[in-house]
Specification:
The protein is of the alpha/beta class. About 45% of the residues lie in helices and about 25% in strands.
């Protein structure tokens, strides 16, 4: 059975202008707000330099979200474009999560992968 406890980790590779994150479980608005703040902190140095950035999203274990959370995620994705998101590599293991994120990332140069190695290779080409 899938663990539905919400969790995330956000890091950056500033020399590559990359933001890497993992997200798991079923989120509520409080989880999403904590994630949003962590993302902003990691993005801040890249945004200050005025450079484009790339995202590696590892959503293995992230389940399809409820509508309110899904809408808030879409707003966060839109915000990332304002700050220079040029491409996103998505690693996922759920067809429903992939479908939801393709819909939410309609303006994103998004590619989906089943492993991190291929995702990072594409992200850096």
């Amino acid at each position: 059975m899938t663990n539905l406890a919400p969790s995330f980790d956000v890091s950056s590779e500033l020399d590559r202008n990359e933001i890497h994150f993992t997200a798991k479980g079923l989120w509520d608005e409080q989880s999403l707000e904590a994630f949003r703040e962590a993302m902003r902190m990691e993005m801040k140095p890249i945004v200050k330099r005025g450079e484009k950035m790339r995202f590696l999203a590892d959503l293995r274990g992230f389940v399809p979200q409820e509508r309110t959370v899904s809408a808030a995620i879409e707003n966060l994705i839109d915000e990332s474009h304002k700050f220079g998101n040029e491409r996103t590599a998505l690693v996922a293991d759920s067809v429903l999560t992939i479908m939801q994120h393709r819909r939410l990332n309609k303006e994103t140069n998004l590619q989906v992968f089943d492993n991190k190695v291929d995702a990072v290779t594409w992200l850096r080409t």
